[in-house]
Request: fold
Amino acid sequence: MKKVIVGGNWKMNKNVQEAQTLARQLCDRLSDVNFADIFICPPFVDLYPINIILREKESKIMLGAQNMHYEPKGAFTGEISADMIKSAGGKIVVLGHSERRHIFGEDDEYINKKVASALKNELIPLLCIGELLEERKAGKTEEVIESQLRGSLNGIEIDDPEKILIAYEPVWAIGTGITATPEQAQEAQKFVRKVLADMFGQSIADGIRILYGGSVKPDNAEALISQPEVDGLFVGGASLDAESFEKIVRATK
Ligand code: PGA
Reply:
């Protein structure tokens, strides 16, 4: 049985002081939770100060970064490497988030290099995929999901399903308040697993945790996680408040 995993994507929110406050609140509120793995993805500058808090509080909450560059170092002004994330306490890195794809123009080929670099550096990539509203309306959801998975994971070898996470995040559900229905999430994630099985074999695919993301809130978390193919939740807006994130985590029990 896979353990449920719940993550918070803070996006470009919370300065260092605000981030420290939220991290302390989460450590206190979630200290008893052992039914789910929990991670938070704050902005880069917040990683190290939060790592200190997590260690002080002996918290099991894991840290993730929201992006990275695939090169180990060099003249890449404004970028950050896998090693830097690890040295600040990061264990997970979000790659290919729809905001990176659609606002910053990242494509599958570029994301693929980052996935390879994350794995090489023993960071867990959380690869995000998902279709636009037009694509869903045009009946292209599966085609889009499949090409994002095959493109972003091209040439990648996975010998242990715990080394990668996938988040299905339909773009039309992100930050819009419109959540995919539990059935839509189930259907899309079943297809994700089918493609993963074709790429990596059934047993690896069955072991990979696939998260749903897109307007996850305390009142829809339980229905989403109760779907057999939904192994976790990736939460944006509702992860910025300790009470609502705690409610979401507890709804997965
Ligand atoms: P949201 O964001 O929960 O605010 O819709 C989810 C995400 O972008 O990961």
In short: The two ends are 14 Å apart (CA to CA). The longest strand covers residues 4-9. The domain at 4-251 is CATH 3.20.20.70 (TIM Barrel). The mean pLDDT is 97.
